[in-house]
C-alpha cells in the first residue's frame, strides 16, 4: 500500500477550511494523517478513489489523471449556490 499525499491546488469561491498548499496524507489505504481539520466534503469526494490509488491503480485508469499524471478531484460544495468554496485536490503517491 502506498501513502497518498493530498494537496489543495485550487479554490473557487471561499472555503472556510482550506488554503492553497494545505496537505494531508492517507496511509495504508485507510489512515488519515492531518495536522489540521479535514473537511467532510473533501473526504466524500475522495472516498471512491483513495483505496485504489493506495493500491497502485493509476489515476489514468480511474479517469482522474491531470497533465502531470497525478489524480485530481473536487469537493462537493456547489459554491455558486452556497457561497462556499469548491476545492480541487491533487492526489499523488509518496
Overall outline: globular
| Sheet with most strands: strand arrangement | 3-2-1-5-4
- According to DSSP, the number of beta strands is 5
Ranges where pLDDT stays below 50 over 5 or more residues in a row are none
Note the main sheet: 5 strands, antiparallel
The residue-averaged pLDDT reads 93
Global Rg:
13 Å
SSE order, one letter for each helix or strand = EEEHHEHE
Number of domains: 1
Helix content: 10-25%
Number of helices: 3
How far apart are the termini? Answer: 11 Å
Structural class by secondary-structure content: alpha+beta
> Proportion of β residues?
25-35%
Question: Would you mind describing this structure in some detail?
Answer:
A hairpin with a 3-residue loop joins strand 2 (23-27) and strand 3 (31-33). A five-stranded antiparallel β-sheet has the order 3-2-1-5-4. The chain has one domain (4-93). The mean pLDDT is 93. It has 94 residues and is an alpha+beta fold. The protein contains three helices and five strands.
Amino acid at each position: 500500500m502506498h501513502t497518498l499525499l493530498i494537496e489543495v491546488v485550487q479554490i473557487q469561491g471561499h472555503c472556510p477550511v482550506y488554503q492553497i498548499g494545505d496537505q494531508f496524507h492517507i496511509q495504508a489505504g485507510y489512515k488519515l494523517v492531518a495536522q489540521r481539520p479535514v473537511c467532510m466534503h473533501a473526504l466524500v469526494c475522495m472516498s471512491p478513489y483513495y483505496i485504489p490509488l493506495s493500491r497502485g491503480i493509476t489515476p489514468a485508469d480511474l479517469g482522474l489523471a491531470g497533465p502531470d499524471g497525478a489524480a485530481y478531484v473536487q469537493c462537493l460544495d456547489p459554491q455558486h449556490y452556497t457561497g462556499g468554496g469548491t476545492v480541487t485536490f491533487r492526489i499523488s503517491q509518496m
